[in-house]
Write a structure and sequence with these properties.
The chain is an alpha/beta fold and 325 residues long. Helices cover 43% and strands 19% of the residues. Helix 1 links the parallel strand 1 and strand 2. It is globular and about 60 Å long.
Length: 325
C-alpha cells in the first residue's frame, strides 16, 4: 500500500508553498504529490486563489529529482484533449518521465460559470470524457492517427515527440464508482480513483472493477483502485488535536470538536497507529494506494510524518492496447 500527498491547489497555495511542499516530499521519501485542478476556490467567499495546475506541475518537474507529480483530477471540461495531451507530454519531458494524469468529468458549477466553461448534464460530460480518454491514449501510444467522435475530431495527427514514459503517462480515471465510469476505466485507464469512500464501499467498487475487466478480457490486476480522502493524522493525540484545531479554524468551523464530528466517515483521522489500522483495512478491501488530502498545506511537519510513516511501494497499472480507430 502506498500513501501519496494530495493538495487542494485552489485554496491559496502559492508558488513558495508548492516548492516547500515538493522539498518536504523529497526529504520524507514520499513518492508522489498530486494536486487538484481547479480555477476557483471551493470555499465560497474565502478569497483564496489558484495557480494553473499543469503550469505548476511543469515548473515543479524542473526543480525536483525523484518526486512524481500529477493532477487529481483535471476536468475534461477545461481543455481540448489534444491540448491536454501536449501539456502532459511536455511535463513528462521536463520531469524525465515523472508525471501522471488524473482526469474526470468536471463538477464545480461556480468555476465553470465564472470562467466560461460549459458544464453539460452528466451524461453529455461522460460522453466527452470518454472521447477525451481515447484521444489522450492515442496521442501517447505512438503513430499517426485520426479520430472522429461526436465531440472531438483529429485528422492524421502524428503526435511528436512521444512521451518519455513508455506507453505514456499513467491515466487515472477519477469518478464515483458508477457503472459507466467503471466500464470506461476497464477499457482505457491505468488506475481508477474514487473520493472518500469507506473500506466496505471500496470493496464493492473493487468487485465491480474486477467484473468489468473480466468482461473485456483484461486482467483485473492491471487496473489498481485508489481512494482520495481527507487525512488528518498526528504523531499522538495531542498532535492530532492541535492539527484538528488549526484545520477547523482554516475551514471556519465553530470548534474542533464540531468539525471532527461532521467529517465524512471515509476520512482518515487519528494517531499514526490508528491511521495504520485504517490503511490496512483499505488494503484488505482491494485499495492499492491512498491519496491523502492534506488541507493544511503549510503544515510541512504533517507532510514529513506522512512520508516517514506511510510511504510504500505501488505497482502501476497498464491499460490494454487500443485497436485501430
Amino acid at each position: 500500500m502506498d500513501v501519496c500527498l494530495m493538495i487542494e491547489g485552489q485554496e491559496d497555495v502559492t508558488w513558495e508553498d508548492w516548492t516547500a511542499l515538493a522539498r518536504a516530499c523529497e526529504r520524507a521519501g514520499l513518492g508522489t504529490m498530486f494536486r487538484s485542478d481547479h480555477y476557483l476556490t471551493v470555499v465560497e467567499g474565502s478569497g483564496r486563489g489558484a495557480l494553473d495546475a499543469w503550469a505548476t506541475i511543469s515548473a515543479l518537474a524542473a526543480t525536483t529529482e525523484r518526486l512524481r507529480l500529477g493532477t487529481l483530477v483535471s476536468p475534461a471540461t477545461f481543455r481540448h484533449p489534444s491540448v491536454l495531451a501536449k501539456m502532459v507530454t511536455t511535463a513528462d519531458h521536463v520531469s524525465g518521465g515523472r508525471v501522471e494524469l488524473g482526469i474526470g468529468a468536471g463538477w464545480w458549477v461556480a468555476e465553470h460559470e465564472a470562467y466560461g466553461f460549459p458544464l453539460d448534464p452528466i451524461g453529455a460530460r461522460m460522453d466527452a470524457l470518454e472521447e477525451q480518454c481515447e484521444i489522450l491514449v492515442r496521442h501517447w501510444e505512438g503513430g499517426r492517427f485520426s479520430f472522429a467522435g461526436e465531440r472531438y475530431r483529429s485528422l492524421e495527427v502524428e503526435p511528436l515527440p512521444r512521451p518519455v514514459q513508455e506507453h505514456g503517462p499513467p491515466l487515472i480515471l477519477g469518478a464515483g464508482g458508477r457503472p459507466r465510469s467503471i466500464r470506461l476505466a476497464a477499457r482505457l485507464a491505468d488506475e481508477y480513483n474514487v473520493p472518500e469512500l469507506t473500506a466496505a464501499e471500496l470493496a464493492a467498487v473493487r468487485q465491480r472493477l474486477d467484473q468489468a475487466c473480466e468482461a473485456i478480457g483484461r486482467d483485473p490486476a492491471t487496473l489498481p483502485l485508489s481512494v482520495m480522502t481527507g487525512w488528518v493524522v498526528g504523531a499522538d493525540e495531542a498532535d492530532l488535536d492541535r492539527r484538528l484545531g488549526r484545520l477547523a479554524a482554516w475551514e471556519g468551523a465553530e470548534s474542533a470538536a464540531a468539525y471532527r464530528a461532521a467529517l465524512p466517515p471515509g476520512w482518515i483521522v487519528g494517531t499514526v497507529e490508528q491511521a495504520h489500522e485504517r490503511v490496512a483495512a483499505l488494503a484488505a478491501a482491494g485499495v492499492a494506494r491512498v491519496m491523502a488530502q492534506h488541507l493544511l498545506h503549510r503544515d510541512l511537519d504533517a507532510v514529513e510524518l506522512l512520508g516517514r510513516e506511510f510511504s510504500g511501494p505501488f505497482t502501476a497499472g497498464r491499460r490494454p492496447p487500443l485497436s485501430p480507430p
